[in-house]
Write a structure and sequence with these properties.
Blueprint: E1 2-5, E2 8-11, E3 16-18, E4 26-28, E5 42-46, H1 47-57, E6 66-70, E7 76-78, E8 81-87, E9 95-101, E10 104-108, E11 130-134, H2 147-163, E12 167-171, H3 177-187, E13 192-194, H4 196-207, E14 216-217, E15 228-231, E16 247-252, H5 261-265, E17 269-271, H6 279-289, E18 293-297, H7 302-309, E19 314-316, E20 322-323
Parallel strand pairs: 3-4, 4-5, 5-6, 10-11, 11-18, 12-15, 12-16, 13-14, 13-15, 16-17, 18-19
Antiparallel strand pairs: 1-2, 1-20, 2-3, 7-8, 8-9, 9-10
Length: 327
């Protein structure tokens, strides 16, 4: 049985928590973003997610955390069940969990995307009986432009800002979108300077074999405004050294599809670079997975109605709800 208690998923048959927001004895962590990764007693994760968690936890009292690492597509047995991790395409190391038993198969997607990426493993979709998926962008208005158009917007924003004597600053989460932006800019031959947190995480990416291109860590004393800045969004504080010349600001997020998003994020521009699946991708995933039952979480409950109108047996997972693992 799956159960949802205190916003945390639990698989009783395996005594395994899933992406729990609270510290647990043993928990599967789908990826390294802070809303999914905690310092549990034992962390079950992919090799690269464990690498990222070690980096993110290194400054805290995480010496007692045990990492149970599993490579993609290498199943292991727990009692009467077989478990397999496979790529979610969300950020480096992000995984989905396949649970197989005598009565059928279940997939937990965690956060995922189907769009191509330069900096994380390609996504995989597996057929299953029960699908428990995130639906962050589960509304029709969230249909992102093609990837090549998004890349062109990023390159154009940087190129025109630099040509006009402005320092372009791209606000992007330090894990995932920051590295993707760096790779896009570097491939276009645009010099890149990054915030310290982005620099540290990018080193972890490079240790895992990801090529990000040339970049420099930000130094307020030497930055001259002739390179694109990649900066984490919290606070969106202006880099001190950029006072030497005007800034042009842009936020990289799927929420760029919302009218007036610039005002919400206090930036000049928005570009819809996302590490989540958009509405068409959510539908495409379900079509390819062919589940008998779909459970939804981490997104809009309205997506349930869209699926039901398509004849799909779907339900939104709510607190204290219990569901059969294999149905």
């Amino acid at each position: 049985m799956f159960s949802l208690t205190d916003k945390s998923l639990y698989v009783a048959a395996l005594d395994l928590w899933i992406d729990s927001a609270q510290e647990r004895g043993r928990c599967y962590v789908s990826h390294g973003h802070s809303d999914h990764a905690r310092e549990h007693g034992r962390v079950v994760a992919s090799v690269n997610s464990a690498r990222i968690c070690r980096h993110r936890f290194r400054r805290r009292n995480a010496g007692d955390v045990i990492y149970e690492e599993h490579a993609f597509e290498e199943p292991w047995n727990e009692g009467e069940h077989r478990l397999t991790l496979f790529s979610a395409g969300h950020v480096l190391g992000s995984s989905q969990l396949l649970i197989e038993g005598a009565d059928g198969t279940c997939v937990y997607t965690g956060d995922f995307k189907l769009a191509p990426s330069y900096t994380c493993e390609p996504p995989v979709v597996k057929k299953c009986d029960v699908l428990l998926m995130e639906c962050t962008f589960g509304r029709p208005q969230y249909a992102f432009p093609p990837r090549d158009e998004v890349e062109a917007q990023i390159v154009s924003f940087a190129t025109h800002a630099l040509a006009d004597g402005h320092a372009p600053i791209f606000y992007a989460y330090s894990l995932g979108k920051a590295q993707e932006a760096m790779a896009i800019l570097s491939r276009a031959g645009i010099p890149v300077t990054v915030h310290g947190a982005v620099h540290a995480m990018s080193r972890v990416y490079e240790e895992a074999g990801v090529q990000l291109g040339a970049y420099e860590p930000y130094d307020a004393l030497t930055y001259d405004g002739t390179s694109a800045l990649v900066w984490p969004p919290p606070g969106r504080k202006r880099p001190k050294g950029a006072n030497k010349r005007p800034l042009r600001t842009v936020m990289l997020t799927g929420w760029a599809m919302n009218p007036g998003a610039c005002y919400r994020y206090h930036v000049g521009s928005m570009i819809p670079l996302s590490d989540h699946a958009d509405f068409p991708s959510l539908l495409a995933y379900i079509e390819r997975a062919e589940p008998k039952k779909v459970w939804l979480n981490h997104g809009s409950p309205e997506f349930v109605q869209h699926l039901r109108r398509l004849g799909i047996n779907a339900e939104y997972l709510e607190a204290h709800k219990q569901l059969a693992l294999f149905a």
